[in-house]
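Two proteins follow. First one:
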Amino acid sequence: MVTLQTMKCGEYAILTLDEIEKPLTYTGTNTFDSKGSLTGNGISVQGNRLAGQEVLQVVFDAASKAMKDSLPLQEILILAMEAGAKAGGD
């Protein structure tokens, strides 16, 4: 059986989607202190080298707004990445 321990994923963030409304995340144990994740209905934001925890919320908010505006996925991703970069990035 493959588990997080057997995958040796200590430096990586992992996202699983069993249900789109409930994304699950895992941030490795060998990552920087400025790591984290923020999830919501159909959205998962993760970072292992965040400039600060506020980056997660900025990216999440940008993606949420773009989704509410019914933008195509590629535009949602670009807007979210641009917002994250402006907030200091990962």
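Second one, unrelated to the first:
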Amino acid sequence: MSKGGKRPGAGRPKGSTNRKADKIRDFYQLLINKNLKQLQEDLDTLKPKERLEVIISLSKFVVPMMKAVEMSGRIDSPKIDMSKWK
């Protein structure tokens, strides 16, 4: 038997979810669902700017974050002779 390194088939299969994380996510969703009315009442007591800040901060748990994309390179466009447009 060799020491160290990966064992074939060991660990969680690629793409499978973590059971603890699933349980926590399910509990959190249940907690939110049971308190929707209170959450709405709390939001209604806030000023519009505060309400928007809370909604935006909560949205990152629902809407996936998009990564910033950096582009490099050059776009070549045809040159237009404007002197003929008289």
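SUMMARY FIELD: The chain has a mean pLDDT of 83. The chain has three helices and no strands.
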